[in-house]
Write a structure and sequence with these properties.
The chain is an alpha/beta fold. Helix content is about 45%, strand content about 20%. The chain is built from ten helices and eight strands. The radius of gyration is 22 Å and the shape is globular. Mean pLDDT is about 90; it is low at about 290-295.
Length: about 300
């Protein structure tokens, strides 16, 4: 079965980081190593990490200075971990796992995902689902990435807004695919977005060129359900999508026209599929009426 390592970013995670690391280290298929990037924690996180390093020999810690909380540093920290691997000649693996500092992974989580990816070579990004969620796009907090694909086409994460989403769409454009396994589960100890409030959602949709109909449909789903970003978050998302002004040559600059066109075409296809399903359900739910002799 394939091998893997795990990357975790954290900041002020004293209540969750130990359980997250232990749940990864205790997997039925153990990681070759775990790299934790502490992004300037001011609580007892550094003390916990240093203690765990004595107990878990495969744990590696990268410590950043305290520059305040900034969600945009996440892809930079992922890349810092990737450079650390090269600089320290750590063993190559078949996959790497992007984990989260507040997630607990069931003991066979890695085994289930790796077994699936070993047997489905076209799938280059795969994750499980958390709790009772039904996402159809791999989640960043439990995502496995195929090393052969990633090294060939990326090497490092895009240091731009939408870094997780864009590599999924780019894989489609290259003829690959991704998957979500509902039978591989993990849990979040903190509410989603409790740190960043999903502040990047609307701007990210704008720079990726989301179709307006798709964006509005997503707003309705989020606003009506209140999940996963809440009603205020849904309003903020729609406002930012309409009015946000991207910059050039910065973290939030617009992606290529080719990529934006691909995303819009896929989203339109999804909207049509939903529309067709609704029509089918509507026809099938019409009340039954016995045909009369006149109608025959």
């Amino acid at each position: 079965m394939g091998t893997y390592y795990s990357i975790i970013t954290c900041r002020n995670s004293e209540n969750d980081i130990e359980n997250s690391i232990v749940s990864i280290y205790d997997q039925s298929i153990k990681p070759e190593y775990i790299i934790v990037i502490d992004d300037g924690s001011k609580d007892s996180t550094p003390t916990i990490l240093n203690r765990l390093k004595q107990e878990i020999p495969v744990l590696h810690i990268i410590t950043n200075p305290d520059l305040g909380y900034d969600i945009t540093r996440v892809p930079f920290n992922y890349n810092k971990a990737l450079r650390y691997i090269n600089e320290n000649n750590l063993v190559d693996t078949d996959y790497h796992m992007i984990a989260s500092d507040d997630c607990i992974y069931e003991k066979d989580y890695a085994s289930k995902v790796i077994s699936y990816m070993d047997n489905n070579q076209d799938k280059v990004f795969v994750s499980g689902n958390y709790e009772r969620s039904k996402y159809n796009v791999p989640r960043g907090s439990g995502r496995f990435v195929r090393s052969s694909y990633f090294k060939r086409h990326h090497k490092f994460y895009p240091e731009r807004m939408g870094y997780e989403t864009v590599i999924l769409y780019e894989s489609e454009m290259k003829g690959y695919n991704y998957a979500v396994l509902d039978y591989a589960k993990y849990t979040h100890n903190r509410a989603l977005g409790s740190n960043h409030g999903f502040s990047e959602t609307g701007p990210m949709m704008k720079i990726l060129g989301y179709h307006p109909l798709f964006a509005f449909n997503r707003f309705l789903v989020y606003f009506i359900s209140g999940k996963p970003i809440g009603r205020k978050g849904a309003i903020r998302m729609l406002y930012d999508f309409v009015f946000y002004k991207p910059h050039r040559n910065t973290f939030d600059m617009i992606y290529s026209k080719e990529l934006r066109d691909h995303i819009r075409k896929k989203q339109l296809k999804r909207l049509r599929n939903v529309q067709n399903k609704i029509r089918t359900l509507s026809r099938n739910s019409l009340p039954y009426r016995e045909t009369t002799l006149m109608e025959k």
